[in-house]
Specification:
Blueprint: H1 21-28, E1 34-35, H2 47-55, H3 68-78, E2 85-88, H4 90-102, E3 108-113, H5 118-125, E4 129-134, H6 143-149, E5 154-160, H7 172-180, E6 185-189, E7 209-214, E8 227-230, H8 233-242, H9 250-260, H10 263-284, E9 289-290, E10 297-301, H11 306-315, E11 318-319, E12 321-322, E13 333-337, H12 341-356
Parallel strand pairs: 1-11, 3-4, 3-5, 5-6, 6-7
Antiparallel strand pairs: 2-8, 7-8, 9-10, 10-13, 12-13
Helix pairs in contact: 2-9, 3-9, 4-5
């Protein structure tokens, strides 16, 4: 290849998506396959959101560059000033804009591990260095260790709460201390916050804090890619400079607005998922070491290598996430999304079969 890409991109791994339901059906000749790997809302989007999406017809017209109506709906939902809210193409889009704003080649991003792999990918894409800090035994962030790693090159510190893939939340006093003792931007990823009884939104009073959320999980709009973040108004002005001209489509925004107008539906979904999470945690403990979670998934450790468990479950029509390739996870780590009761029962039955076959 004659053209030359950035040297740092050579370190960026190609994203490999998990197998789809259709792929698994075809490969193993199965009639039923349950996907418990991507932390999706198994109940689907609100009917009002679907209808709002379907009503749009002006596909030939560009969308707005800034959807104030959606920002105002979000502001009412989370009780913040709409002028502190930015929108992006999913949480990933918000993250990418933040990295554009802060990183130059050679800068550093501190990432408590294990956590969401895309943090590492984005850091490398911008020719920066990911500084990895191991978590405590309960997977909470070790603030002292993080602060020990900060220096003049530290531009962003990632806080994921509830954390993906471990499901734990961070103690507010820990994050507040971190915010107050660093000049770096503290990016708080709350993608799964609706399933939790703890949030860190009030920390946006600090100018070096960004709190980001998404419509992909609790609101079941993952395919529409709608993320948002709350930040200092001065920071928001800079964000709008790096945002793509048309980051969101109008039908997607219409669906998000309708979803916020149908909060009762979202709350019903959340309630069912949380109830199933606790039941599933208890049942999974018969097969794995299971960690407490405040997200819509459970992190487990298996005596058998996770690659083997994941592959054997695929053969029985269950897709789970093998986390052995997550930075900071070992080769016995799995993440299991909480599905509907019948899907979770299908999983549990498959695990019983693996146990009787001597695999577990």
């Amino acid at each position: 290849m004659k053209v030359k890409i950035k040297e740092c991109l050579k370190e960026v791994p190609e994203y490999v998506a998990g197998k789809s339901i259709e792929e698994v059906k075809q490969k193993y000749g199965l009639k039923r396959v349950v996907k418990l790997a991507s932390n999706e809302n198994p109940y689907g989007a609100s009917k009002k959101a679907i209808e709002a999406f379907k009503k749009f017809r002006d596909f030939h017209i560009y969308p707005k560059t800034d959807f104030k109506e959606l920002r105002e709906k979000i502001a009412d939902y989370i009780k913040v000033d709409a002028e502190k809210i930015v929108l992006g193409a999913g949480m990933d889009g918000v993250l990418e804009n933040i990295f554009k704003m802060f990183l130059n080649a050679g800068d550093e991003v501190i990432i408590p591990i294990p956590s969401f792999p895309y943090y590492h990918t984005l850091t490398k894409m911008y020719c920066a260095k990911d500084i990895r800090v191991s978590r405590r035994e309960d997977f909470t962030m070790d603030v002292d260790a993080v602060l020990d790693k900060t220096n003049e090159k530290t531009k962003i510190i990632i806080v994921c709460s509830p954390n993906n893939p471990t499901g734990n939340v961070e103690r507010k006093e820990d994050v507040k201390r971190l915010v107050e003792e660093t000049d770096a931007l503290v990016f708080i990823d709350e993608a799964y916050v609706e399933f939790s009884d703890c949030n860190l939104m009030d920390l946006v009073e600090y100018e070096n804090v960004v709190v980001a959320r998404t419509f992909s999980k609790a609101f079941a709009l993952a395919n529409l890619r709608i993320g948002y973040a709350v930040m200092d108004e001065n920071l928001r002005r800079e964000y709008m400079k790096v945002n793509t001209p048309f980051p969101l489509s109008t039908p997607a925004v219409n669906a998000a607005i309708a979803a916020l107008d149908d909060l009762d539906y979202a709350k019903q979904c959340i309630k069912k998922i949380v109830e199933e999470r606790e039941r599933l945690k208890k049942e999974l403990s018969k097969f794995f070491e299971v960690y407490s979670s405040q997200a819509n998934f459970l992190f487990v450790k298996s005596d058998v290598k996770s690659k083997i468990v994941a592959e054997e479950l695929l053969k029985k029509g269950i897709i789970v996430r093998d986390c052995s390739n997550f930075i900071g996870c070992d080769e016995h780590s799995l993440r299991i999304s909480v599905g509907k009761k019948e899907d979770n029962d299908f999983l549990l039955n498959a695990l019983e079969n693996l146990k009787s076959e001597g695999i577990l």
